[in-house]
Amino acid sequence: MPVKEQGFSLLEVLIAMAISSVLLLGAARFLPALQRESLTSTRKLALEDEIWLRVFTVAKHLQRAGYCHGICTGEGLEIVGQGDCVIVQWDANSNGIWDREPVKESDQIGFRLKEHVLETLRVRHPVKVRAGIKSLIRMPSLSTLFRSYVRMSAASRRC
């Protein structure tokens, strides 16, 4: 019986391995750039989400400013300082008054831009607010977030 040879010779296998090695090395060169671009776009998206959240929060409070389901005294929107502090009052629980106690449920909320940081605080007494708002939550200001976004966009175009 004649023996029929099947399969690849050693030389063919070596040539196939050399070609696939060259192709894999070429593809691996682009992997770090792909990962860097993926990380950059993830950061941009997170930054855009953060900016949207801050703008939405402030805008919602400004829209609600002055709402009262009864007889409330005082201004619904007050701009103090040199225009970098806004105090918003609205009747969140529709009980007909602007509550100031307890502080966690206060109907007054202050927003202040200080040293490129947007600070927010539920306010108890408007007199203390004029003296200065103490920060409860420190958030990057919108201008700082926007500058970071622009820097990241420029950096991603260079890569």
From TrEMBL:
Name of the molecule in the record: Prepilin peptidase dependent protein B
Membrane topology: Single-pass membrane protein
A Pfam family per the record: N_methyl
NCBIfam families: IV_pilin_GFxxxE, PRK10557.1
Transmembrane segments: 13-34
Compartment(s) of residence: Membrane
PANTHER family for the chain: PREPILIN PEPTIDASE-DEPENDENT PROTEIN B, TYPE II SECRETION SYSTEM PROTEIN J-RELATED
Keyword NAD: no
Keywords: Membrane, Methylation, Transmembrane, Transmembrane helix
GO CC terms of this entry: membrane
Record has Transmembrane helix as a keyword: yes
Biological process, per Gene Ontology: protein secretion by the type II secretion system
